[in-house]
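Let us practice reading a record.
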Amino acid sequence: MKRNVELVVISDVHLGTYGCRSKELLRYLNSINPQKLILNGDIIDIWQFRKSYFPESHLRVLKHILDLAYKGCDVVYITGNHDEMLRKFGKMQFGRIELTNRKLLNIDNKKVWFFHGDVFDASIQHTKWLAKLGGWGYDRLIQLNNIINWGLVKLGYEKYSLSKRIKNSVKKAIRFISDFEETASHLAIENGYDYVVCGHIHQPQIRQVETKKGVCTYMNSGDWIENLTALEYHQGRWNLFNYENHKIQLEQRPSEDTDLQRNVEELLKSIVNGPI
């Protein structure tokens, strides 16, 4: 049985990169039945896109999202910095799929503001080449980390995150994350929003922020490279879903690969042969 969830938020999947954990994401998506799915930026990594690397499992994620929309789920694709090429299209609607740069929803009489968050990142706004180089370096670091973790698991040790170690030991990185969260929260309070939901910094979080002007709840959906997290809203409550905490149950679920394989093949045929 799939879990019914009113709203799900995922971000920073980075399809098309070596670090993307598409198989884990598919297991999660196969376990839920969402009414609304918000893709909060950096779903497809257009910065690092190359024809030589876009595995079948990455295509399956895209196909699954399209299937959700076809079955009645409202999908909102919010653009991020790694898929910023989509921003030139502005706000568009394709059936149940909406493409936009930001989204404001009224959920149980609460104003919830969704956007990716790269607007607060000065390195992206002013030195894009450096940000792209950093993205390439991060992907290589994740590749190395995967090799190291493979060896650690074989030897019976726990996995180790190099990037988390680096982030937690560099004072500038810690300060940037803190400043990001505070800036987003203060801006939400200024606009009278009750919640602000971001991605971008790969740091899953739900916390309340209070200033002299008011209070809001800051939330970040994390990523599907290291943390493997998503935000869920159901029956009046927000929760942070962590794949690792449900790994055993999710991996024991029946696979839907057969149907997905057939659908992916049909999708590939349509791409090769052109529109029907």
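A brief commentary: The first strand starts at residue 3 and ends at 10.
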